[in-house]
Amino acid sequence: MGNSADHDNRWVGWNCPATDEICVNVDGSSRGYPSEAGFDGVLRDSYGTWLGGFYGSIGNATNMVAELSAIFFGLISAWERGHKCIVLCSDSQEAIHLVRDGHFVVYPHANLLGDILAMLHWDWHVKIIHCLREGNQVVNRLAKMSSHSSTSF
């Protein structure tokens, strides 16, 4: 008889937002430290209907710059489409921690982080939450592809 352990099984997938909200799933990716990096995201309503998407290459950058760029462009994409109730989902706990705590004075990418923090004070409601990588697969795969691309949209 081997060791047995209790395992909790749980559903890992996309979580739909409330009816009046949209979900913006974002991800960033770097092929090294630093190396070719990119970001992307998708916007969906509470039914999972595609509302839009974006991606971009940011040249040589760290993974954290790619993750913060994904958050920045996710917010910009939602704002430009006129959405006022946003649930932004990222699988980067570190990026979420930086944004939530707002401690950017000594952070190497203070300008990007400062821009994100300023956007959170615009006339809208934004929740930034962590999602597991397995529940963020669409943007996870696209972010890896965008780091190889020289175009953005």
From TrEMBL:
GO terms for molecular function: nucleic acid binding; RNA-DNA hybrid ribonuclease activity. This is RNase H type-1 domain-containing protein. CDD domains: RNase_H_like (cd06222). It comes from the Eukaryota. Residues 18-148 form the RNase H type-1 domain. SUPFAM superfamilies: Ribonuclease H-like. InterPro entries: RNase_H-like, RNase_H-like_dom_plant, RNaseH-like_sf, RNaseH_domain, RNaseH_sf.
